[in-house]
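Table S2 (text version). Query chain:
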Amino acid sequence: MAKITKTEEEVRQQNVAEAVSKTEQFFKENGKLIYGCVIGVLVIALAILAYNRFILQPKKVQATDQMARAEQWFLSGEYELSLTGDDNDLGFEDIIKQYGSKAGEAVYMYAGIAKLQTGAPEEAIQYLKKYDGEDPILLGKAQACIGDAYADLENYSEAISWYQKAAKTSDNALAAAYLLKAGIAAEANGNDTQALSFYKEIKDKWGNAPEALEIDKYITRIENK
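Corresponding C-alpha cell output:
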C-alpha cells in the first residue's frame, strides 16, 4: 500500500471539512423543510396506525359479528331473511352497505347466491362480480353462479363465457359440472357444435366425474340430430 504523505492527508482533511461544512450549510438553509417533511411522514404513519387500530379493526370485528346470524339464515335456506335481516340483526345487504368487505369477501358470495335464489339475477351478478377471493374453488363457484344468473336472463352467450371461466378457474372435478352447464346453455343458444365440444371435453378430460357417467346420452342426442 502506498504511504500517505502529509500533503495528501491535509488535502483529505480539507475535503472532509468542506463536505461537513456544506452539509451543515444545507441543513441550516433547508432545516425547516426537512424537519417538516419528516414530521409529515410521521404524522401520516401514526394516522394510518391509529386508523387500523381504532377504526378498521373494530369495524372488522363488528362486521364479522353481524355476519354470523346472516350466515345461519343462509345455510337454513332463508335467503330473503339472510339478505334483509330482522329487527335485531343485519342481513347481507346492510352489512355490505355499512362495512363493505370488512367481514371478508364471502359476504359478496353469500349475497349474490341469495339474490339468485330469490329470483333477482341482475342483482346477483352485481354482488358476485365483486367477489375476489383467492381460493380457486370458491372463485370458480362464484363465476359459475354468474353464469347461472345470465342463463336465468336467457343471455346464454354470457352464461357460457362464465361457465368456461369457472371450469378453467377450478380445474378440478367441479369443472365437469360447469362444462355440462356450458353445454346445456350452448344448446339453448342453438349452437349444437359448441355444446358437443363441451360434452366431449367432459368425457375425455373428466371421465371420473359424476357428470361423465351419463355424458354419452348428451353426445348421442346431438350426433343423432
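Notes on Table S2: The mean pLDDT is 81. The two ends are 94 Å apart (CA to CA).
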